[in-house]
Amino acid sequence: MDRAPAHRAPSPTPDLVADTLAWIERHLDERLTLARLADRAGLSPYHFSRLFTARMGLAPMAHVRGRRLVRAARRLAAEPDLRLVDLAFEAGFESQEAFTRAFGRRFGVTPGRFRRGLAPLPPDGDPAMPTPETSRAVARLPGLVTRDAFTVAGPTRRFDQATASTIPDLWSTMIRGLPFVDGQVPSWATYGVVWSADKEEGSFDYMAGIGVRPQGALPAGFERKTIPAATYAVFRVTLDGTALHPQMKGAMAAIWGELVPASGLTVADGPDFELYDGRFAPDRPGTVIAVHVPVTT
Fold this sequence. Notes:
By secondary structure, this protein is of the alpha+beta class. The protein contains nine helices and ten strands. The protein has two domains: 16-116, Homeodomain-like (Arc Repressor Mutant, subunit A, Orthogonal Bundle), CATH 1.10.10.60; 138-296, Multidrug-efflux Transporter 1 Regulator Bmrr, Chain A, CATH 3.20.80.10.
């Protein structure tokens, strides 16, 4: 059953992402890792990666690589005698081939064609950062909630920032498997569960699931996962009746980029999840989703 322990009052926090961006610009020549960036911010790598990605739209180390590529492109244009292999190593790549592939993905041309002026010079200076703007539709609920372990089942896939827009397809697969008699719990609450995040690249496992008993047959394509007992900060997302995925994308940016840091709480390792109650109707204005983020106490 759920219990509500005493709530630790939030404390104001600095804008860690803005501070990290400025620090990265000053230390691009050094060996930068996610662990080093997270340690400097005073956060776990998982928490820091979620916070940074929510604000910037890409994972921390992807940002570092992008900034190094911008600097490399400007040097390429300014220093005609600079060897590509030297530039590749200075930019932190293991080979000229890896550098050339990354350069092409970033600028749409090879380094050689870029040097000949076949692509515009990228702007220098600090990167622009989205201004934090908490949506009125997202709010942290007072207190913390402790839940016992429970089990969910459903289809699971691995997503990244480029493929996350296809998460609704996973929900369609889950819904087609319902109802099933053997093992499904009476409640029709469903769960969007996130775990096993790749902190470097921003990828993660996601299940569109429904509550089940620990044993029992499952529909084809369903997997079973146990969510361990944990204490959660809960964030309420109120929908406006328009398309669900864009609203959830904005809500997650507000939760991880603003509300979690402002709470003063420490995010625990473990799955976080969206809880959709049995009355959930995505096209009905006022429908609520409860996002549960595990925290330490």
